[in-house]
Amino acid sequence: MPRTSKNISFVRTKLLDSKVPPTREKGVVLWVRKNLLSSWLNIILTAIVAYAAIHFAIGLWPWLKNGIWQASSLADCRAILADAGLGPTDGACFAVITDRWHQLLFGFYPPDLYWRPILAMLLFIGGIAPILFFSLPRSLLVFSALAPLGCFWLLWGGTLWLPLSITLGVCIGYAVLRGLEKHIAPSIAAVCALASMAFFFLFGFQPLVGFAQDSFPISIQKVASREFGGFMLGATIGLSAIVLSLPLGILLALARQSNLPLIKWSAIIFIEVIRGVPLIVWLFTAQLLLNYFLPPGTSFDLTLRVIIMVTLFAAAYIAEVIRGGLAALPKGQYEGADSLGLSYWQSTRLIVLPQALKISIPGIVNEFIGLFKDTTLVVFIGLLDPIGVARAIQATPEWNGVYWELFIFIGLLFFVVCYAMARYSLHLENSLRRDHK
User: Fold this and answer.
1) How many Å apart are CA 307 and CA 325, to the nearest integer?
2) pTM, rounded to two decimals
3) Is 23 exposed, middle or buried (0-12, 13-18, 19+ CB in 10 A)?
4) Separation of alpha carbons 172 and 194, rounded Å
5) Phi and psi at residue 279, to the nearest 5°
6) Residue 149 forms beta bridges with which residues?
7) Rg value, the chain, Cα
8) Can you name the residues that pair with 220 across neighbouring β-strands?
């Protein structure tokens, strides 16, 4: 006899209400089960690591808890610990941070001008925000283009007409490019634009700055690069190199894949020579040898020389990362661009490069993080980065003997910046994913 709703004892006519999943199937408990306790081997390894972490925390916690935050010297810290019945190594002397934090952050920058690097950092963050977050209006990219010049003027000071004249030179090149690209080949238009900019900076730049400053003097106090130091110096070198090395790395990657032998082999030689020599050697080159390649009598600031050399070093590595992204694209993407009748520059800008950069995001950010940490190498050529400032503080009679407290603080500063870059990289990867949309 066929089964129907009349001879079945019960038939559900509505869906059950959804219920909260069990505790072991959600949240932290689920993550621990899947990642830490999924097998006997993982359980054993988790137990070993947990024991080591707990043992380390138990030993470190009293040292942190007994830390002294208000003292004028290491001797005062030890006296305060002795009054509390503790040994000289039973508590951290964090008073060195509260006493010398300004040197760790700003080096020997004039204290009454601390507002300038702070404002420059805010200006940099505001300028880079439209580039990092696509939800912001694209019209803000004009501010992004002008922000680096504003940061330069705030940090080094001098006449305002210097960054304004640099802006004028870039605008001249852009105007020439836009005016010629409709009538001649884009590559020839780009060469003409670069030539016009070079002509302006060689023959018209200095007279224009001098005339404008004499007619309408607008300037702020100059600060020499030797007064830069601490985390501000590392951020200046690192962020400048990051911003400048990415477009240069893109050009090198495209040049290495060019069909023109001169361009291709020039890019290959540059990349392989830069990558084949350690960064510390290039820093010594910037300090000792770069002036020999400049016109006689030219005095080029050491910090700017280091920024240029670190930028070239990072660009060579980024070029290889981007070349890997270009090589990962299917051949059909290039053929599809050709079938649409797009020129080389149109297909590169609209089809090829966006996909290659998306593939290369993890590698590019990895290079940026490594570059930012490698700025500490400038201590070997006499620039006082955070490590150099910490060594200088340790050499003073008041804080001679302080070690871990300074480097823990410096490590936390670098961790915050590098972790922020890593998290943004993850956010960018997730926002550009198209496999589940």
Assistant:
1) 26
2) 0.83
3) exposed
4) 10
5) -60, -35
6) none
7) 29
8) 158
